[in-house]
Amino acid sequence: MSQNSRSDLSQASPGSIPHWYAAGTEPVTIVDGDGACVYDEDGTEYLDFASQLYCVNAGHGEGRIADAIADQLERVAYVSSAKDNDTRAKLASRLAEVAPDSLSDVYFSVTGSEANESAVQLAREYTDGQKVLTRWRSYHGGTYGAGSLTGDPETRSTLERHATTTGAGKFLPPIPRAFDGATGEELAERAANHLEFVIRNEGPESIAAILTEPVAGTSGAYPGPPGYFERVRELCDEYDILLISDEVIAGFGRCGDWFGIQTEDVVPDMITFAKGVTSAYVPLAGVLVSEELSDWARENGTELGQTFAGHPVGCAAGLAAMDVYEDDLIENVRALEPHLGESLQALEDRYDAVHSVHGRGFLWGVEFADPETGEHFFDPRVDEAESADDNPVKAVQMAAQEGGVMFGSGRPNVQVIVSPPLCTTEAELDEAVAVLEEAIETVFG
User: Fold this and answer.
1) Bridge pairing between strands 131-135 and 207-212
2) Percent of the chain with pLDDT over 70
């Protein structure tokens, strides 16, 4: 694979301000894509092992989705979100078919942030509770409402510089670092006991919902330890709290099933989704709700809405994407998950600087730490900002990109996130892991 050719900043989309943009950096200008690969303006090829923003699940250039979009545009391009539409109804029905049994209806939205805000609004109205509990190290969106739910301090601090966000409490994620290195069943028990302490301390009657990812996304791709989510479900039932599964990243085959929570055999009260529902070909999001919540919403009416929620073009893309996932992509993830996991875990065995490898399906985190201290080499939450350029994890990511593979970065940037399109082949997995190993060797020796 050819070497990275980085575009000149002055030529990168004049007038367009990139998101998540660090001043002085030079973003790559991507102009084409095919399957698991993207190409810059100079024709340089990259394996897209971030699926751009963990969303191009079906891969680039999937003609079946493009054709469905074109067909919908020829029939009717837009229908008000306050009206019914046949394509919208078909997608809602299709989503309910693959969701956990008790989830029956869909409240459509536009983005993942808005889907999470909609789910929280519904939970608060339904329960009359004002608080929502989310995990530290979580990401649920960057708008003011979703930002208050986000446990990533960098995002929340940015939003709260000029306005305070409220209504959310935080609990520790079920990771060994948060519970003195505990693993397995011990970690599940201690993390769940901690969550119950937070619930009781906050006051169960004040809590509307617990919002959590079944497999963490940008915060590290870590799954819950065995038995953890079953206990979370039990706590929600015991204290009359709704359980919302944030599937914006974990959904639509990413973790080896339609929804990540299905890999835990736990049924939530709501599922929020976005990104992969259309393979990111068109913006679309929504909330899958239980029949009980749906009946309540229909009886009481909905006083809020979004102009582009459930856009027919997005729904057409969603139906086509689901066909693609169902045909062979979810099965491809299931078949190749052991190979990808073993290949990445071999890096942990081979390099002392690789502290932990964890994940599920096609969503993995490779975490780095000083082998002598066990502490991260650089943590933007506690280390001085001027030291950020010395972060070796960032250097690994850049070296890999120069080698022709784009990986994601975590929150905080102490890990590399491996999240390829679901169409990725075994040979492409091997190539990407080899490039990652070479990058680790270059940086750490």
Assistant:
1) parallel
2) 95
Spatial separation of the C-alpha atoms in residues 119 and 291, rounded to whole Å: 14
Residue type, 45: E
Dist. CA 118–CA 310, nearest whole Å: 13
User: Shortest CA distance to 93 belongs to which of 310, 364, 373?
Assistant: 310
Using alpha carbons only, give the angle 247, 343, 434 rounded to the nearest 5 degrees: 105
pLDDT digits (tens, 9 = 90+) for 231-279: 999 999 999 999 999 999 999 999 999 999 999 989 999 999 999 999 9
pLDDT of amino acid 186: 97
What DSSP letter does each residue of 140-159 carry, written as one string? --SSHHHHHH---HHHHHHH
Asked if residue 11 has pLDDT above 50, the reply is: no
Distances (CA, A) of 171 to 168, 178, 196, 209, 214: 10, 10, 10, 13, 15
Residue 118 has pLDDT above 60, yes or no: yes
Q: Quick check: helix, strand or coil at residue 51?
A: helix
As a whole number of angstroms, the distance between CA 359 and CA 344 comes to 10
**DSSP letters of 279-314?**
TTSS--EEEEEEHHHHHHHHHH------TTTT-HHH
Residue 93: which residues within 8 A CB-CB, separation 6 or more? none
Q: Is the separation of the CB atoms in 235 and 241 below 8 Å?
A: yes
DSSP 129: -
Q: Find tokens 């119950």 and name the residue.
A: 196
Task: Render pLDDT for 369-405 as a digit per residue (tens, 0 to 9).
Answer: 999 999 998 877 777 654 556 789 999 999 999 999 9
Separation of alpha carbons 258 and 60, rounded Å: 20
Domains by residue range for the chain, with CATH: 9-61+328-444 (3.90.1150.10), 63-324 (3.40.640.10)
Sequential DSSP letters for 321-363: HHHHIIIIIHHHHHHHHHHHHHHHHHHHHH-TTEEEEEEETTE
